[in-house]
Amino acid sequence: MSDILIKGGTVVDGTGAPAYRADVRINQGTITEIGPDLKPDGERVHFADGCYVTPGFIESHTHFDATMWWQPDLDPLPGYGATTVILGNCGFTAAPLHPEKAAQLEMVKIFSFFEDIPEGPFLEHLPWDWRKWSEYKASMVAKVKVPANYAAFVGHIAIRLAVMGLDAWERAATAEEIRRMAELLDDALAAGALGLSDNLHDHDGQDRPIPTLVADDAEFEALFDVLQRYPAATYQVIIDTFMRKTGPASLERLERLTKGRGIRMQVAGAVPTLAFQKDILPTLQARVADMRAKGYDLWPGIAHVSPTSTLSLVKSLIFAQSNDYAWHEVVLAETHEEKARLLADPDWRARARESWDTKAWPHSPMNNPQDLHLIDSENGTGPVGVTLKDYADSRGLHRSDAMAEWILANGTRSTVHMSPFPKDEALTVDLMIDPRTVGNISDAGAHGQMLCGGGENILLLTKYVRDEKLMSLEQAVHVMTGKLANFFGLADRGEIKVGKRADIAVFNLEEIQRREMEKAFDVPDGKGGTTWRFTRKAAPMRLTLVNGEPTFDGRKYTGATPGTFLAPANDAHAAAVAAE
């Protein structure tokens, strides 16, 4: 454990309070003294002149549940000041598990499809030596060493599959199955899970509603009964404001099912910010306001980065989630030879054109070729740097045929990139500043060939604070630190205060940037080889500390793995449950 004195910096303490000049002393991983002109007492001195000293940043919505087992450096997070990651979101978790292998594999397939994570390393690198979530936690703590702290939800999808097996896709649960689900949730919460994560949003590659969309009210009520017994637990759920736009109906259902329960709810999509979502925005805003006025503890989840899509034929759910199952056939083709054969097949071409014209959502990439960019050629044939619309128009082709032709010419490992969806920035800022929202949401750890999340946090400091002056530095830091620590019940960190754990980021505001995407060929493919993911170079931080240990030294990841499992403030209740 390092003892460090950070001298000469400007402290932004994570509470939203004004910044101030001060030195910060750290002993044995804890902040022990804050004040002007502190004298060294044998510890290492880090000079922070011209820099801000803030709490380490909390990645509030990640999917490192699987990838942390084979990518334990969590690249590129240390270079972006991240010190805590929240796992297990959207109902996708690696535990609990059904005893039968087929049902276990189904959970892997679901996680792999929706988060674009290869199945091979998922099966190869995780030990699968658990059934209950408590056993999973014990295995994770013993075997995974990472440079950031981590806290985790237990997923409703996993719970449902663990009890019902493959029937979870097909029907409502019986009373006995619901009882067993409640037991599994209680096991997880007693072991330190943040709460229950859920999914009222997704359909799979065969257009099947995700298993949690099949659950009836009795199942939800039993699970909410368990959540009520854990006051610091959170219900995290994603509702559909993106595809079928069933979000308003889902939020109305949740209002009914949680009435009078006092359960804290984090709802991704509760207040959508993208331009194509404006048709449902007023309804959702009115319901959120009404629920809050009635006493519901409702926290909309907010992403400050507009979703972007990378259309890949190797691993991508974009086509299926755009309601385009013709192009999804190409993604599912097992070899690149088969992918190329489909792209050239006249019958498939006809079905693909019809799919884009009549089935794909109007706001999907398929129907916005002016926003699809041909920039990533496998073999360099090109042209690159043009839009799909320009390419199609220049050749007199339908946009689907044009993309097929370009990929055939450039190689089936080429990717097509979509511009960010237009977003209401004023609403985004208002939501981030709202005292009851969860910001800094991303999908870090997932969608590696789209690069969701990793390094996006820095835009709060560069775009929103430094460049466009849409919010103050104190507000932006609060969004990523103290506000989130308090929400998740992580009471011993998130602020620069004496007695708090020393999760700290030190940076010069003028030199940090969200760096450009670049490929890293380091993802195991489960066949003895590797595939690629997008990453980016460090912002960089001048220093990132996790529990007082440097994980980024201003130039590179240090190799340190001081991250620990964090439980919410349910510890006293969990101890009481264990003693019964």
From TrEMBL:
GO cellular component: cytosol
InterPro entries linked: Amidohydro_3 (IPR013108), Metal-dep_hydrolase_composite (IPR011059), Metal_Hydrolase (IPR032466), Metallo-dep_Hydrolases_sf (IPR050378)
Protein name (record): N-acyl-D-glutamate deacylase
Pfam families, per the entry: Amidohydro_3 (PF07969)
The keyword Hydrolase is assigned to this record: yes
Taxonomic classification: Bacteria, Pseudomonadati, Pseudomonadota, Alphaproteobacteria, Sphingomonadales
EC number: 3.5.1.82
Keywords annotated in UniProt: Hydrolase
An example Gene Ontology molecular-function term: hydrolase activity, acting on carbon-nitrogen (but not peptide) bonds, in cyclic amides
Keyword field contains Ligase: no
Source organism, top-level taxon: Bacteria
EC class (word): hydrolase
Gene3D superfamilies per UniProt: Metal-dependent hydrolases (3.20.20.140), Urease, subunit C, domain 1 (2.30.40.10)
Record-annotated Amidohydrolase domain positions: 48-277, 463-551
